Amino acid sequence: MDDEAATHALLVFALSLFVGPAIGALVGWRKNLFWGVGIGALLIGCAGLYGAATVGWQRYQSIAGTVLVEGHLVEFVEERSKDSKGRTTTTRAPVVEYTASDGQARSVKGLGGGLSGKEPGDPVEVRYKPADPSQALVADFQNMWGIVWGLGLFGGFPAMFGLFFTGMAIKEGRPRPAFAVKVREATPAQKRWRTRGTVLANLVFLAGFAVCFLYPDESFGKGLGAGFMTIGAGALLHFVVQSFPPAMEFEFRSILGIVGLGFIAFGYGAWMMM
């Protein structure tokens, strides 16, 4: 389903990986480094977010008219592919059998990540189109939303960094004040709250590393996802603490926000795909 939309989105994103740095280098040469990095990263980010939005909308529309049925895993088949350097990569693709409303048994091939822990005969949900039951999709996160999440992640990160460097470029271009702005000192109460918040954020941040290895689940991906989301929560808590008045300058705080959101997004995807 939606193969054409996914192919189009991937082509646009792949093109942005060449166009973005090229235009960024030109802008950086004409203006300054911050503008160049910002514009280049924004072009890549917007291409990724465009792909995530278009594929997500197409997927939502196609899934809205489907029927959910329980099938079962038949087997895993090996698929080999070669990259541009001639290296061979082998993946295991699950084959799932399902029975549509017409009583005919059919099979669909999916992506293996989300079903890697299953055995032949285990139940697997499938969505198919009533008008054409042969058009089906394994109904797990990876097969339905994996490409949307991937494009959103690879688009969101460059977009956030692009906004950061563009903001730095705008700030650098502003005229500097003739006199130094006096920085307000934190009160003793504000210092205590910031210290307590920093300690709590550090504990959450460090707990994320422990969760990666101590999470009570056989799936390493589940533990990795839970750990990364915990680390992201710690980084976002640092962002909140550093926003207490008198706040740290926004460009420095925003790095904590970007890191936190990135870890949470990556961790959520790892959790859902395992």
From TrEMBL:
Residues folding into a coiled coil are none
- Keywords on this record? Membrane, Transmembrane, Transmembrane helix
Give every DUF3592 domain span. 69-140
Query: What stretches pass through the bilayer?
Result: 6-26, 33-53, 147-170, 199-216, 222-240, 252-271
Q: Does the keyword Transmembrane helix apply?
A: yes
Name the InterPro entries for this protein. Answer: DUF3592
Name the chain's protein: DUF3592 domain-containing protein
> What is the phylogenetic placement of the source species in the record?
Bacteria, Pseudomonadati, Pseudomonadota, Betaproteobacteria, Burkholderiales
